[in-house]
Design brief:
This protein has helices spanning 3-12, 28-37, 47-52, 59-69, 76-92, 104-108, 114-132, 148-157, 183-191, 206-214, 231-240, 248-253, 265-270, 282-285, 289-299, 304-316, 322-337; strands at 15-21, 95-102, 135-143, 165-171, 195-200, 220-223, 244-246, 275-277. By secondary structure, the protein is of the alpha/beta class. Helix 1 (3-12) packs antiparallel against helix 15 and helix 5 runs parallel beside helix 7 (114-132). The structure holds adenine and zinc ion. Residues 19, 21, 171, 199, 222, 280 line the site of zinc ion.
Length: 338
């Protein structure tokens, strides 16, 4: 298949997105408008100047801008707009199910509580269910640069909203903040019945991936691209089919890889690991889910079978009930057998 046909296939296939930070979908134009609305002085002279500032040399240089950007999110409507804009984009890209991370501590540390952001998210998710025929789950993510006590408090504060949350996660500055720091709060989250995910092996070493598996008992690893440095880990991930939610453009923008042509996602897939494509923070990294696929198609030799496998893996690795997974897998099969 030609590259343009492969891109059409990406658009046609129903897909799930499993690694997405809602705060990372804040487009410069919305940031600008919300700053005006709330009378917040931004350190940028225009929307274009915001865009131009998005040059990063590692995870931390991105996180500094990302937390600063999130400061324009102040009221329930802002959180609704943010979520609705993302879900509308998903609909355009034929993404039928999403599992969206949100960082409560980014907001509670600014005195913006769950009672502000959760109703905003809920309204957008309900509207998407009704109008776009898509499902969205929420993943409460703890900031790993903060203490475990703060994470425990964050979990407790979420109590009135537990029924809206399907998993807990772990994000922010990885190096120096290993998964072992969050063992208690993950055990508490598991006891409450939440699914578990954690960022590991983005910048951090394979040992962090082992810790996330053995100490936090996660169901999925976010990123995990450094697994390929540890053959025993590769075998384990393959045997256990522990999903890795890989984010190619994120890895490029944060200098985890120098070029997409050097990305290991195709090797991970061909080695039998349960990997799929995600966008992480699309507004900051230059593309939503389909643009991540397009970048792979442009720079790597990806076959139509690879694309179908990646789309199928996104459904298989989701927290959807089995009957809904089967429904979407059948749809993929129908499309590919025509
Ligand atoms: N928060 C938002 N995006 C992130 C990433 N790629 N890694 C860690 N924390 C994040
Ligand atoms: Zn992430």
């Amino acid at each position: 298949m030609q590259k343009n046909e492969l891109k059409q296939l990406v658009q046609q296939l129903p897909k799930a997105e499993l690694h997405l930070h809602i705060e990372g979908t804040l487009e410069p134009a919305l940031m600008w408008r919300l700053a005006k609305k709330h009378n917040i002085a931004l350190p940028f002279s225009s929307v274009e100047a915001i865009q131009q500032a998005y040059q990063f040399n590692n995870l931390q240089s991105f996180l500094d801008l990302y937390y600063q950007g999130a400061d324009v999110l102040r009221d329930e409507d802002d959180f609704f707009e943010l979520m609705w804009a993302y879900l509308s984009k998903c609909h355009e890209q034929n993404i039928v199910h999403v599992e969206v991370m949100f960082d409560p501590q980014t907001h509670t540390t600014r005195d913006i509580g769950y009672d502000v952001f959760m109703p905003g998210f809920a309204k957008a998710i309900e509207k998407a269910k009704a109008e776009l025929d898509m499902s969205a789950y929420l993943i409460l993510s703890f900031l790993r640069h903060m203490s475990e006590d703060s994470a425990i408090e964050t979990l407790e504060q979420a109590k009135p909203y537990y029924s809206m949350i399907s998993a807990v996660g772990l994000d922010s500055s990885e190096l120096g903040n290993p998964p072992s720091k969050f063992q208690r709060v993950f055990a508490q989250s598991a006891a409450l019945g939440f699914n578990l995910v954690a960022h590991a092996g983005e910048e951090g070493p394979p040992e962090y991936i082992w810790e996330a598996i053995n100490l936090l008992k996660v169901d999925r690893i976010d990123h995990g691209v450094r697994s390929s440095e540890d053959p025993k880990l590769m075998t384990y991930l393959k045997e256990q089919q522990i999903p890795l939610t890989v984010c190619p453009l994120s890895n490029l923008k944060l200098c985890v890889v120098d070029d997409i042509s050097q990305h290991n996602i195709v090797e991970l897939l061909h080695d039998g690991l349960l990997v799929m494509v995600n966008s992480d923070d699309p507004s900051y990294f230059g593309g939503y889910l389909n643009e991540n696929f397009y970048a792979l198609i442009d720079k790597l030799s990806l076959s139509s079978q690879d694309i179908v496998a990646l789309a199928s893996n996104s459904i298989t690795a989701s927290f959807l009930p089995e009957n809904e997974k089967q429904h979407w897998l059948n749809k993929i099969q129908e499309i590919t057998s025509n």
